Amino acid sequence: MSSKSFLPPKRTLMGPGPSDVSERVLQAMARPTIGHLDPAFVGMMDDMKRLLQYAFQTNNALTMPVSAPGSAGMETCFVNLLEPGDKAIVCQNGVFGGRMKENVERCGATAIMVEDDWGKVVDPNKVEAALKAHPDAKLVAFVHAETSTGAQSDAKTLVELAHKHDCLTIVDAVTSLGGTPVLVDEWGIDAIYSGTQKCLSAPPGLSPVSFSERALDVIKQRKHKVQSWFLDLTLVMGYWGGGAKRAYHHTAPINSLYALHEALLMLEEEGLENAWQRHAQHHQALRAGLEAMGFNFVVAEQDRLPQLNAIYIPDGVDDAAVRSTLLQQHNLEIGAGLGALAGKVWRIGLMGSSCSMWHVEYCLTALDKVLSEMGARIKSGVAVDSAKAAFEQLKKAS
Amino acid sequence: MSSKSFLPPKRTLMGPGPSDVSERVLQAMARPTIGHLDPAFVGMMDDMKRLLQYAFQTNNALTMPVSAPGSAGMETCFVNLLEPGDKAIVCQNGVFGGRMKENVERCGATAIMVEDDWGKVVDPNKVEAALKAHPDAKLVAFVHAETSTGAQSDAKTLVELAHKHDCLTIVDAVTSLGGTPVLVDEWGIDAIYSGTQKCLSAPPGLSPVSFSERALDVIKQRKHKVQSWFLDLTLVMGYWGGGAKRAYHHTAPINSLYALHEALLMLEEEGLENAWQRHAQHHQALRAGLEAMGFNFVVAEQDRLPQLNAIYIPDGVDDAAVRSTLLQQHNLEIGAGLGALAGKVWRIGLMGSSCSMWHVEYCLTALDKVLSEMGARIKSGVAVDSAKAAFEQLKKAS
Q1: What is the value of ipTM here, to two decimals?
Q2: Measured between alpha carbons, how far is A278 from A299 in angstroms, rounded to an integer?
Q3: Has this prediction a pTM greater than 0.80?
Q4: What is the C-alpha to C-alpha distance for residues B84 and A191, in angstroms, rounded to an integer?
Q5: Which residues of chain B are within 8 Å of residue A250 when distances are taken between CB atoms?
Q6: CB of A185 closer than 8 Å to CB of A57
Q7: A residues 61-100 near B, CB within 8 Å?
Q8: Interface check A22 vs B, CB under 8 A
């Protein structure tokens, strides 16, 4: 067997992430590798921190990218804040709340589960009941934007509740950061993690995180060492903690950081509010198109994430065949259902660079064509015009 | 403060890693991002596995890159093989043995330390004594190629000893893989991890690992869940474990994997034996040049890693000033001393794409110039000719 260079096809990425990565970000990634202690690189790290603080809307000093994907960002939050014997209230309304539970238990802590149906938001009343029933809980963890369903929970209210009961908060903003408001300081979030491959549209592999002073105090007062050496913030801080003198901890993923820096720069150039508005408007356009075809959304209107559109697969339609045909014939990736929603829903992403009218029209056209050819009972030929009309109306109003 | 795109300087990387990344690998990294479950990507993963098996000289089915830097590869080995209450013999002859100890203890296990001086190899007699004194030890962990000193230990002998006493082995091959022989199957290594930014000359951020059947059996029979969800091989295997059906675990660092694939392809094209010989010959050339200038090596001749040359800083020479001048005036990065050797040694890497006569001559010339200008008592103007002569002689002999 002889190998050859891998030349990936050029896809249009409209699943739950990765989203399309722009040529500008890809070319930034291909710049010459330099050392992780090079003064030039350290200067870039300072600017990266400032850009991440902007994206998270925070002044938290401990704001940086973890050198591994979002799951490692999640783990960074839990292993640093929890110790054996602690109790954590974990809200689950999809796949990622379940992953949080796994993290809590692997820290030797107890997870008090607050469960809501998949596709619903986290219910503040249930969280309050759990806080009252467990006055010894140390923190409340929840997913702001559930990537498995497209539901957006009310982070502000949940954080307020947690603080009222003297609990810290861990927030999953993997899919929300850069797509809908994530106001770390205004909402008082204590620990938050995200990913690069969603609304930031950098390649996957890093996880931006931010920790409040309050969270940092808890970490400084730990009785046990953090169980992960790699994710131990007391050590990582020696490298990312600022100042001219950086202590070697691990070798940072240099080129991936170039890419993230460029992507964050693009977000700053556009402006956060404009990015949020862009996601909201294109969601309405896609929605108009999908509803015109006869699709139903999984999540109630007021709780929908604009950047992740979960829709029910029409009866009698072969899930895998449709997705495979979209990929093979149209180079279009949309997402399958995860966990309890596997086989029942599709997840259409409008994230970062994948959030444009070109994407909306391309997706609607391809979906219409493939479903029509398969004889699915949808209303064909109406989607794109509906999307355009909805978009024009929003543009006029704004 | 306004940001702009980060344009890194073009350095010549001759420190302990990252090494120079070729244009070919950088361009591979900049190819379009596709989904981590895309059939095209899954095909690349299969080829990646085969290439890693070649690099590691193993048929181990569980051979893959961990989605984070070498430190996370180390942690993957320890957290999967150790459980609370276990005992591990850890050999330390530099910085990275100390990191292994941290890993063992954070698993709730006990580390029995076997210590050798920095710059020496791991002493098999001491390891045997520890094995006899601790018949209940579960594994022996050691660093094959100590990046902090440039000493190469006898992995074959150490693994044999461990097996004789019914222990598993964890081997750090971060700096050796691709530069000197690493024969996983022939030596019977049970768990091994490496990095991408040393002799493979891909950007940092991934850690190739390989596990024997015997190691896998131990993992399958664990009593406790692996403490890290992100690094839990029983879960990661669902994604990397082969077969057409890949289960989502975490989002793989797509573009970093493109780069590693291309770098491994280059290694295959050159041939492992040729790569080992290239590192050995250029080491001799660099050595001839450095010795002609009057430098002394930290490690005894027979124990030296060709790809990492630790030399004593001449008396009265300002360590930081020399490295800073090399970087600012010659765009040349060489490594500082780490830990016990900080301020006492320089570490000159000849790794992967940074291992050529161009690099040897460039480094010797720059070092000669900077030291002479600073008035250091070295023999100037002789290094490059000595290096060339040594290299020619080796080429003739081979």
Answers
A1: 0.97
A2: 20
A3: yes
A4: 28
A5: 69-72
A6: yes
A7: 67-72, 74-75, 99
A8: no
